[in-house]
Predict the structure.
Amino acid sequence: MTRRLFSLLLCLIILVPAALAEDDFDGELEITEILEFLPEEQDKKILKDSDGAVIMTITCTGDFTIGGDNYHKKDIFTPELNAHGGDINFTMSGVRDILMNDDLTIVNFEGTFTDTTYVPSNKKENEFLFNISPSYVSVLTDNGIEAVSLENNHVMDHGEEGYEDTKNTLREAGVIYSNSEEKGIFEFEGIQVAMLSYLCIDRYGKPFGGYPTFEEKVAADIAEAKQYYPLVIVSFHWGLEPTSSQPNRGYKPTDNQIRLGRLAVDSGADLVVGHHSHRVQPIEYYNGVYICYSLGNFCFAGHKSPKDMTSIMFQIRYRIKDGKVSYKDFRVIPIRISSKQKVNDFIPTPFKPGAESDSIFNTMRSSYNTKGLDYAITEFPMEFE
């Protein structure tokens, strides 16, 4: 059976990049809708439940960071790319089957698709800046990655020029993106899924996007989206990264994460996923909705030998019948961000059941990391029901 893969609907397009500070925001939003269709995908069967309901599978991952730093002249990624004959698809070789066999994959794209060497003054002191040539956007389209979040602290590494290059590259490739002012819309079997994304790190409690507080903006966006779309997925870039003096702090959600994650659900979100801490955090099942506080890294060119290279992919399935959507089940796929144990080669590699997987799950369910999470789940199925 053939099907139309998806439609790309970007709403609320504004004249300034979403990652700019609130002080840079000026004027009303320009509302625009862009609807594009990709060619029909051949030879992919629609999965159906026993009663004939269509099953939609969605995969979510954490930080997807490829390329190097052409400002600081630091690049650990290109030598590995050259070792694979310049074929960017080497990165997805361990998970491609998973991504090609779902219906929607969402990653946090933390970097830029641009050839510019411009760096804004507020970024020149940063330890890491990321960019890769727009030609390598094929790493998404060739491997079943249909959508990206563009809300993170590296998407503006090369200023507005690099940001616009990135968005244009994604549009031309047919990849859906979302940020704090643009919704990404995925269509499957007549059902539309709205994706919203937010960088949260320094925005809590501050005016944002014409609202008295960032939280009010988020809640209003989600509530509005839920009026029109049966499924709303919200991505948050939030939390704390580990430091040399506090190496374990990235495993536990902050109070701001917990409050905002639950606010998103109360406002209408059907799934909440997070990233930024470079570590895996617990999952809550709050009011019938999963909140994945941090999915950790996915394909991560920010460090050749991270202290913790473990992570997870989160997959969830929904039933579609008679024009209505209902939850079916979920699974967690534990991974190492490298195919090698001690050196990061940028090839996410799933673990089989065993000691490595158990170690990740034990961290996610530990009493310290789940403190304050009254709805934390403790079982992590690696297969669907």
Summary: Confidence is low (pLDDT under 50) at residues 1-42.
